[in-house]
Amino acid sequence: MPTLAIVGAGPGLGLSIAKRFGAEGFRVALFSRDQKKFDRLAGELAADGIEAAGFAADVTDRPALTRAFDAAKERFGPIDVLEYSPAPADPQSGPLAPVDALDLTVEAVQPQIEYHLYGGITAIRQVLPDMLDRGEGTILVTTGASSGLVVHPPFANIAAASGALRNWVLNLNAALARKGVYAAHIAIAAWIGKGGPRSHPDVIAESYWELYRARTEPELFYLDPEMRAAL
Questions:
Q1: Which of 35, 164, 166, 216 has the fewest CB atoms within 10 Å, i.e. the most exposed one?
Q2: Can you give 63-120 as a three-state secondary structure string?
Q3: How far apart are CA 134 and CA 227, in angstroms?
Q4: What is the DSSP secondary structure assignment for residue 150, as one 8-state letter?
Q5: Which helix (H) or strand (E) holds 184?
C-alpha cells in the first residue's frame, strides 16, 4: 500500500489532498507543529477508512523534521508521494509576516528562507534518496503564486524565498526526468475555501491527483478566476 506524506497538514487543502489520495488506497503521514491538530485529522481520515498517523515537527527545526520522517518511515515504510505546503500559524504578524519590496531587508527575508527553502530542501532530502534507489516516487511542492508567476510587491520576502524553492523544484523536475521520479511545483492563486467554486479545497485537491497521475507537467498554476482582478 503506497504512502503519502503531507508536510503542513491542516484541515483545509491538506485534509482534502489526504482524502483524495486516501480514496485511491494511500496511507497518509501527516506532519504538523500541532499534535492535537493532526490527531483530529487522522481521526477524520480513519472515519473514511483511510489509515493515517501524525508526526510532530516544525519545518524550521531541521533535526526535528528529520526525526519525524524517520518515525514516519518506521511506521509506514518508504514514502511514495511527498506533498510539501507548510503554512505559518499567523501569517500576518511575527517573523513570517509579509514585507513590501521597498522595505525588504536581509533580516526580513531570512525567516522565510528558513521556512520555505531550507524546510523544503530538508523534507525532500528525507525521501529523494529512497525514491532514486527504487526508481519511482513523486514530489509535489506548493507555494503561493508570488513565487514567480505573479508579481505582488507586498509579499516581497515571501516571494524571494518561495521563488528560490520553486526554482529548485523546477530544476529537480529536469534532473529527474529519466530517473523514474517526478517533481512538480504548484502555485496557488486562490483564497482557499473563501472564493469561488475553484477555491474549494476538494476541487483543488483533484488537481493534485490529476498532476500526480499525468506526471508530465513541471508546474501547475492554479488560479481561482475570482482572484484575477486582485492580481
A1: 216
A2: HHHHHHHHHHHHHHCCCCEEEECCCCCCCCCHHHCCCCHHHCCHHHHHHHHHHHHHHH
A3: 41
A4: S
A5: strand 181-189
Buried b / exposed e along 38-71 (16+ C-beta atoms within 10 A): bbebbeebeeeebbbbbbbbbbbebebbeebbee
Q: Are 208 and 187 in contact (CB under 8 A)?
A: no
pTM assigned to the model: 0.94
Cβ–Cβ < 8 Å for 136, 114: no
Contacts of 228 (CB under 8 A, 6+ apart): none
How many residues are listed for the chain in this entry?
A: 231
Grid cell of 200 as nine digits? 474549494
Q: Grid coordinates in use for 80?
A: 511514495
SS (H, E, C) 17-67: HHHHHHCCCCEEEEEECCHHHHHHHHHHHHHCCCCEEEEECCCCCHHHHHH
